[in-house]
Design goal:
Layout (H helix, E strand, L loop, with lengths): L8 H13 L7 H7 L4 H9 L5 H19 L3 H4 L4 H7 L6 E4 L3 H10 L8 E4 L11 H10 L7 E4 L2 H9 L3 E5 L11 E3 L5 H8 L6
Parallel strand pairs: 1-2, 3-4, 4-5
Amino acid sequence: MDGVVIHSNPIHRRAWEVFNRRYGLETTVEMHERMFGRHNDDIIRDFFGDGLTPAEIISRGAAKEEVYREMVGGRVEEALVPGIREFLERHAGSLLGLATNAEPANVNFLLDRARLRPYFRVVVSGDQVENPKPHPEIYLKAAALLGLAPANCIVFEDSYVGVEAARGAGMRVVGVCTTHNDLPGTGITVHNFLSGSLREWLAVQACFV
């Protein structure tokens, strides 16, 4: 979702900075780099250490996402990755799923605010799996719910941990370069869904014939 459906990572970065300052913590460039594609529980442990209780970890993660939703507010439409709505409409007859480490509140916020929910047959968020990305569980679960073999799935990813998860699941990967300029291990990389090369690449993939 983040970085593929919505170009939200710049807003997430600012939200982490604002949130972390509540605890006297300044967010470095290295901290930002480590958070891409990861589940909030992992990020909170990374930023604040292992001394927090499970309840405190959940509470801080939820509080940070409240900051994010306040920031993105009425800017959802302009923050969507260019071409994503048209892409979803063009492939509305395909078995499309959304698999994301994002918090359920953020998933619901985006799908409802952007009116994208009808396009996805399956939605799997980080709280529905034991092992978040880079473990492949979330993609394997989404494929199973869609009734598809992993080899017949194409994943769109913007993060290194996401590409690792998709490849670990045995799926093909399209890299969306909203977060990183290079995504090793992908079949093709594009800047957004307006890419003509993406259409050409998908046209030769067996599951899109």
